[in-house]
Amino acid sequence: MSENNLFPRKKDIFQKSTKDVQNIVGRPSVDTQYQVIFSFGNYQNWLESTGNAIGKSRTNGLDFREKMSIMCTEAELPGTNFETSLAVGHHQGIQEEFPNLRNFPPLNLTFYCDADMVILEVLEKWMTYINPVQKNKRDYAAYTRFNYPEDYKEILHISKFERDTFTEKTGDYISSMTHYEFVNIWPTNLTSMRVAYGETNVLRLSLIHISEPTRLLSIAY
Description:
seven-stranded antiparallel beta sheet
């Protein structure tokens, strides 16, 4: 049996002073340093096909994707889980589980709603394009027809960095960034937004994306 498989010895237990690990415990990753980048490549299909392009006067001189990036107040670094199969009888008295399918949960995003309602308009047009209403919406004979997935599926990226990532270093250590790429995403649920008299709060918009099982590509550098 390899020495690495034995029970831990006394020498394996950390017994040094906390001063020796100050640089480790003193630099935890914080959840406020991130950016969601909407690398939309098909937005001309689902956003500008109606002829109502969003002008920069409503986005403070920015591209609408940049405004979405700034106003995205919550995002999720992706998790994953395995579906398992139970095997009985391979070993006497033992039930074993083995992975057979890897799943990625949906990506949830939350935005601060801007006063010009640009973000809400972009997301509603995206979902409307997926399943548009044909003919006049008030016509009893109106019907819906789904568009081709290749025309509305998109790509976005989440970049996670730290407070000192962009500061100049005098030593050998350089803080890294971790990038997550989500491929073939499309919105499945644009949640309701509650408005009410009383205490004033920032209006928030929550969106759930879903994508292909192979959507995730993680790159750290």
